[in-house]
Amino acid sequence: MFYNVENLFDIYDDPEKDDNDFTPEGFMQWTNRKYQKKLRNIASVLTAVGGMQSPALVGLCEVENDSVVFDLINRSPLRAQGYEYVMTNSPDIRGIDIALLYQRHQFKLIESSEYEIEFSYSGKRPTRNILHVTGLLINSDTLDVFVCHFPSRSGGVMETEQARIKSSEVLKHKVDSLHSKRDIANIIIMGDFNDQPVDKSISETLGALSLEDVYADKQLFNMFCTSDNNKELGTYKYQGIWYINDHFIVTGNMLTKENLINIKNNEALIFSADFLLEEDIKYYGKKPFRTNIGPRYNGGFSDHLPIYMDLIIKASAGK
Predict the structure, then answer these.
(1) CA 289/CA 274 separation, integer angstroms
(2) d(Cα 281, Cα 205) in Å, to the nearest integer?
(3) Model confidence at 30, in pLDDT bands (50, 70, 90)?
(4) What is the Rg, in whole angstroms, of the alpha carbon atoms belonging to the chain?
(5) Does position 292 have pLDDT exceeding 90, yes or no?
(6) Nearest one of 272, 42, 58 to 147, comparing CA atoms
(7) How far apart are CA 17 and CA 125, in angstroms?
(8) Angle, nearest 10°, between helix axes 32-50 and 66-74?
(9) Mean pLDDT throughout 187-204?
(10) Per-residue pLDDT tens for 49-96?
């Protein structure tokens, strides 16, 4: 599962980051009551996606720091799910970061790394690091997970495109490095790319193909790039139009039934339960039920919808 949880901030000012809005005295009047409800709301989404059991792996973005992730898995209804986590420590001005939650009985952590995006041109603010986590699944096969939150489109799509392309170049280099040192690399990339499946950073720089292309083990495929995508729903709505900005991208071997780890039905889904949506009075239809709309507290969840997919894990030979 991946979820942009939109501004999961604690209520305390970090003097090294621009987070003053999310304090009781700040622009958002962010109180402990609102913070605790935000934790409960996110926990309820994870539980709903997993049904009887929360997802084994959950990528999150827009989490402020270690404290909020700790609170989420230990001081919310998720505390019974046995989650542990790793996260980045990015140079992002606002202080938002990326985390991967994992259930320790289903994923044994081997190592984690983070990769900073360095821009060669002046004037571009620092962005979020890319998180890379390697672990063993219950069949002892290795899985590599990358969690991303690429630079936003704020300031204009074309004006900010190069920043997303640069992020994608760093990610592609790390993926290629894995292929060079492993016979079979099982790779899942998840994140908010702030781009659509056909945009340059994803389709050209990263080289993620459509699910309708011929599968090749080391090729990347975008789980939301198909001709029959439902145009009536995406993961993010802007000025009345739904966009798919949140993605799962996987190596081709994970789309074949011969592989010991594969994607169930070769599909990923957008979780669009009614409780995550509200009426879009301005543009009609539905829109994500947000926590805040500007400075007004709305009591909802996020401006994004979560995405999820199921893995089929088969026993290794001799296991």
Answers:
(1) 9
(2) 38
(3) very high
(4) 19
(5) yes
(6) 58
(7) 13
(8) 60
(9) 97
(10) 988 778 999 999 999 999 999 999 999 999 999 999 999 999 999 999
Name the nearest CA neighbour of 311 among 156, 161, 188, 206: 188
Topology of the domain comprising 2-313: Deoxyribonuclease I; Chain A (3.60.10)
Neighbours of 279 (CB within 10 A): 10
Return the ∠ at Cα 82 (arms to 77 and 86), rounded to 5°.
Answer: 100
- What is the pTM (predicted TM-score) of this model? 0.96
- Nearest of 270, 202, 269 to residue 237 by alpha carbon: 270
* Beta pairing partners, 136: 108, 142
Per-residue H/E/C for the chain: CEEEEEEECCCCCCCCCCCCCCCCCCCCCCCHHHHHHHHHHHHHHHHHHHCCCCCCEEEEEEECCHHHHHHHHHCCHHHHHCEEEEECCCCCCCCCEEEEEEECCCEEEEEEEEECCCCCCCCCCCCCCEEEEEEEECCCCEEEEEEEECCCCCCCHHHHHHHHHHHHHHHHHHHHHHHHHCCCCCEEEEEECCCCCCCHHHHHHCCCECCCCCCCCCCEEECCCCCCCCCCCCCEEECCEEECCEEEEEEHHHHCCCCCEEEHHHCCEECCCHHHEEECCCCCCEEECCCEECCEECCCCCCECCEECCEEECCCCCC
Provide the token pair at 231.
Answer: 């145009």
